[in-house]
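lol so apparently i was supposed to do this last week
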Amino acid sequence: MPHIHLIIGARPNYMKADPVYKALAATAQFQLTLVHTGQHYDHKMSQLFFDELGMQEPDITLEVGSGSHGAQTARILERYEKVLLENQPDLVMVFGDINSTVACALAAVKLHIPVAHVEAGLRSYDSRMPEEINRVLTDQIANILFITALDARDNLLKEGKTAESIHFVGNTMIDSLQAFKQHFSRSKIQERLNLTSAFALITLHRPSNVDDRSKLAELVSALEEITGKLDCVFPAHPRTRKNLADFGLLERLNNNPRFHLIDPLGYIDFMRLQRDAAIVITDSGGIQEESTCFGVPCLTVRENTERPVTITNGTNRLIGTDYHRIPAEVLQVLEADSVPKLIPERWDGQAAQRIAQILLKQDLTLFFN
Ligand code: UD1
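anyway here it is w/ uridine-diphosphate-N-acetylglucosamine bound
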């Protein structure tokens, strides 16, 4: 029976990998090993999701922790190579675009173990974004490419990948949304935060938005202005919280009764907030996709997106990084009668099933012969 390693490392990976693990396990045709690199390690960034998703606990943990990009990627590469040498799987599956994705893919192909990349072909064409480098490199060395939208196919073909290696399966993160949506109402987060009227949900953690003192100060001023119109809920990533504290911005936000700066949330609480928000303001990739499925307007605080289908079909708008424009953009959304809502093709909760069917038919011995 083919042995597959599934690699997870950081928060968005869990929701992408869980449905794939479950769909592969249901076939009873594969031996599965879940490997957690430990890129994220805080309870609220990691273990909480296993508990909530009822996710298989990792079989192997690499405990690499934080570090500079070079150090973190190198640690994963070195530790995962050792695991591969002992374990000899027939396929390594990587997800998304984080440092764990590229590091584990590289360790595998160097040992002539084929790699499948879930969420392949997304491109922002912004090489200053660490994730873009991770995406391009992972796709170059991956053998099987599972894509969420058709624009990804064009990107991959342009980069010389073959049509046979590309499989349009849909979005496994949306599989999780579909699988768990009946549980979102169970969350008591709105009651806990005492949210009785319309609110904005905010997540910002990209280095380009939160690592520079003056930019973060500008961003905070823009967010404060929004509280004139509606409550703001901001579950802050550890990086963002640390920078807010270091730059002396934390107290201002904590003293604003309409600004709820809180710790990172679990999946069910976060999804309830996202479903019920009047607007989402984010620099995340996955949230652009989830808000499109909820039909909730999303303002993306970036100059580009690797997920254009959320704009062409969904509720997403790119508003750039002139932060002073955010309050006016929010107002415009709140005053609009409706937002276009079209769920992208194959974002139907069946992506992991399609992946399982494709892998059942795939001869994994072909790639390195
Ligand atoms: C990583 C991914 C990013 C993804 C994000 C989701 C890369 C290059 N980036 O970014 O694509 O959107 O995860 O959250 O892989 N930290 C903690 N506890 C943790 C994890 C991180 O305190 O459990 C702090 C550390 O100070 C660390 C910093 O956050 O240095 C950044 O963590 P890191 O894993 O390097 O990248 P993220 O910004 O989380």
